[in-house]
Amino acid sequence: MPQMSEVRIEKEFKPFPVLWHAAKCLREIRDAETVPGRYWAGLGALVMLAFAVEGFCQTEGPGIFGDDWDNEDGARVERKPVLEKFKLIGKSVGASVNYGQLPWSDVKRVMRARDALAHPRPAKRDKSALLEIPEGVHPIDAAAHLVLEDWEPLLEPETARKLAESIDAALKDIWTRMGRDEWQLHLQGSTSYVMTVTK
Predict the structure, then answer these.
(1) Contact 166, 106 (CB under 8 A)
(2) How many angstroms separate the CA atoms of 191 and 11, rounded?
(3) Which of 114, 131, 140, 154 stands 20 to 30 A from 58 (CA)?
(4) What is the pLDDT of residues 44-71, one digit of tens each?
């Protein structure tokens, strides 16, 4: 017979580590040789990586900026674009956020890809090239790289791995300058509950 229980549950959701883990899992699916749709898992991984980056800002920003984060009378940092938020966060903790060099240039690439995917526009690409096409390779396959969207090369497994490493390095720099241990960056939130059995 079912037992009646009064349950009080509390969960802390930290966007960055959850979305980071989702991106990592999708990259692993993309790396698998025989999984159907693995290319699209790479696209999902890219989007999750961008969401994780934004999640970091949204989680850590309020603690850094206090009332200036989203106060009508303050700087309203929360309303600024993600790349600008990182500049402000970096300045606040003494980190150099330079989008012209690694690792921050990769953060910018991922956020630009996210913007292109979030606000897609039709496009027509037309290129000509003299290509040496190996025997057994279809001409379309040999020429496809000429008309890729800007975000498509980011789906290649090695490129995706390097992007994740760069972003991890950039965020760890900020994280440790906030006085935190590196290993804590990827810890997900906690869940706790109290249960009382009633008659």
Answers:
(1) yes
(2) 4
(3) 154
(4) 999 999 999 999 999 999 989 888 888 7
Nearest to 59 by CA among 171, 182, 192, 179: 171
pTM: 0.84
Domain ranges across the chain: 5-189
- Distance, CA of 42 to CA of 153 (rounded, Å): 10
